[in-house]
Amino acid sequence: MSDASSDDAGSMAGRVGKAGEAIGEHLQSAKAATAAAAGQAKKVLGGAGETAGEVAKDVVDASRRAKRQIDENPLISVLVGCALGYIAGWWIHGWTTRKNRNKADTKEVSAAGNEG
User: Fold this and answer.
1) Which of 16, 28, 84, 111 is 20 to 30 A from 61, alpha carbon to alpha carbon?
2) Cβ contact 77:69 at 8 Å
3) Closest CA to 19 of 29, 31, 11
4) pTM assigned to the model
5) Average pLDDT, integer, range 39-68
6) Distance, CA of 105 to chain centre
7) pLDDT tens readout for residues 71-94
8) CA–CA separation, 48 vs 60, rounded Å?
């Protein structure tokens, strides 16, 4: 009986060893996949950071050019600002007025239709 139990213990140890090797292989492949994903993310985010830096530089340059033009022609800048404000106000209030006018027209038409 002692031989049977030692054979069982030996085969069990062999199975545990094989399972340990399989787990080790899976851990190595997971580690490699994680490293690859981290490298890819670093590459993608690094490019985004460079692009964001370039965009920020372009915005700063454009604002400097605009400031220079405003400093050179303040009257033109004020007139352009007033014109843009007027257009925005007309667009907002004109839209509301047209919408209300259309509602009023619809009520008049339906009221006229009910009279006859």
Assistant:
1) 84
2) yes
3) 11
4) 0.35
5) 80
6) 44
7) 888 898 899 999 999 999 988 887
8) 18
Structure-block tokens of residue 59: 């915005």
The residue with tokens 């049977």 is 4
Alpha-carbon gap, residue 116 to 105, rounded angstroms = 17
Which two tokens mark 114?
Answer: 């009910």
Burial 14-27 (b: 16+ CB within 10 A, else e): eeeeeeeeeeeeee
Q: Where are the domains of the chain?
A: 1-72, 74-116
Give the ranges where the chain is alpha helix by DSSP (H): 2-72, 74-115
Q: Name the token pair of 2.
A: 């002692």
Q: Are 77 and 85 in contact (CB under 8 A)?
A: no
Alpha-carbon distance of 13 to 116, in angstroms, equals: 101
Tokens of 116: 């006859």
